[in-house]
TrEMBL record:
The protein, known as: Ferredoxin
Domain of life: Bacteria
Segments passing through the bilayer: none
Role of this protein: Ferredoxins are iron-sulfur proteins that transfer electrons in a wide variety of metabolic reactions.
Cofactor(s) listed in the protein's UniProt record: [4Fe-4S] cluster
Any Pfam family matching the protein: Fer4_10
Residue ranges annotated for the 4Fe-4S ferredoxin-type domain, each copy included: 1-25, 29-56
Keyword vocabulary terms for this entry: 4Fe-4S, Electron transport, Iron, Iron-sulfur, Metal-binding, Transport
Signal peptide from the UniProt entry: none
Length: 56
């Protein structure tokens, strides 16, 4: 199951480079994770400075 990004996201982009499959992109005022691309590795979770990423 793909990880999700909550409304706490500050759109800083810190998570982008941590994703090995480039599943994270900008979606308006925050980032979004493409569920069909995410491999559920969790690499993005540790890079988020506001803890806005969690398992779905």
């Amino acid at each position: 199951m793909a990880h999700t990004i909550s409304d706490e996201c500050i759109n800083c982009g810190a998570c982008d480079d941590s994703c090995p499959v480039n599943a994270i992109s900008e979606a308006g005022s925050k980032r979004a994770i493409a569920a069909d691309t995410c491999i559920d590795c969790g690499a993005c979770v540790d890079t988020c400075p506001v803890s806005a990423i969690s398992p779905a």
